[in-house]
Predict the 3D structure of the following.
Amino acid sequence: MRRSPDSVPPVSVVLVHGIRTSATMWRAQEDFLTARGNPAIAVDLPGHGTRRDEPFSLDEAMRTIDAAVRAADGPVLLVGHSMGGLLSTAYAGAVPAPPIAGFIGASCTALPRGAGLAAYRMLAGALNAMPDRGMWLSRQVLDATLPASTREDFGAGGYAVSAQDEALRSLAELDLVSAVPRIRVPTWFVNGQFDQLRTHETLYRRLAPEAEFIIVPRTTHLVTAMRPRVFNAVLQLALATLETTP
């Protein structure tokens, strides 16, 4: 996208990955944003990707998001998936309000607490207890659900199996019920039709009546990689909205 020298800077996009994966999960989105002319920063959270040797902590995860947002040029669209979406929701609704112009939360309309979180941690523990820490099963799921164009992206940065339980435990500390109503920028929540983290979508709709909720048919939790062209269309919608907002 060409812009005149005296035009406003393009919207920068900060991308925050989900649990176990890394910044590489966003490759399809980075390609789209590069072609569109929008700078993209895909972070690795502590304990993940290039930072797998670090322990996961909630404070460091939030610092990572904040540092990426503040390092970006121009207005910022914050985009998070799954755990990254939960963290980014808490960040977007922080006090004082962070310097973002818009927010997309993908596969994250859930409250990570109680029996649901306990069951998720138990499942993750069972996978980690397998001889290969569940890698064979994970590959089978990805092969069965993701198109060839994005299938390798989730694991390209390695899997953060060691950080998983601490990351899940830390999510219970997030006060999303308070954070969501405080988000004052244009917001889109994106879920796959069969996404297991749609558990509190009705509550989110009440907490964020001005937000747009987009449900992608025939899609599971991995909406960014399972339907990359659809998710890129959501990015296009958000960017076009921010570019035309006075």
